[in-house]
Amino acid sequence: MDGDSKYCVCKLIGAIDVIGRKWSLVIVGLLGNKESYRFSEIQKELKVISPKTLTDTLKKLEKLGVIKRKVFNEIPPRVEYSLTESGKELRKIVLELLEWSTRLEELKDEPCVIMRRKSS
């Protein structure tokens, strides 16, 4: 067992808090498609998520340091959401998970949020 990496599985609790929520990974994937999104743009892209659920999920992701919320001092008020560095790392994992799950099952006839892999 020499040379094996050891990890405390307790660290998964924080990760599960992020990824265990129904819309978290979808929102992380979407936010990585461009620099930032306004609430209404996220709502328009996701279509089937209620405003309350979207608000709650965005607040949780912000609290966990996955996304950042920028408020502009304008009238009417403008708020934009974007990924933090941690969120960008998570998005890479989400893309891998998406590729893996796509190999397992054909896409069903359900609303689909598109994630684009940016070329480096």
Task: Output the keywords.
single chain; about 120 residues; mainly alpha; Arc Repressor Mutant, subunit A; three-stranded antiparallel beta sheet
Structure description:
The protein is mainly α and 120 residues long. The chain has one domain: Winged helix-like DNA-binding domain superfamily/Winged helix DNA-binding domain (Arc Repressor Mutant, subunit A, Orthogonal Bundle), CATH 1.10.10. 48% of the residues lie in helices and 12% in strands. It has 5 helices and 3 strands, in the order ααβααββα. It has helices at 12-19, 24-31, 39-46, 51-63, 85-104; strands spanning 37-38, 67-72, 78-83. Strands 1-3-2 form a 3-stranded antiparallel beta sheet. The radius of gyration is 16 Å and the shape is globular.
Quick recap:
The protein is mostly helical and 120 residues long. It has one domain (10-103): Orthogonal Bundle (Arc Repressor Mutant, subunit A), CATH 1.10.10.
Give a topology summary.
Elements (H helix, E strand, L loop, with lengths): L11 H8 L4 H8 L5 E2 H8 L4 H13 L3 E6 L5 E6 L1 H20 L16
Antiparallel strand pairs: 1-3, 2-3
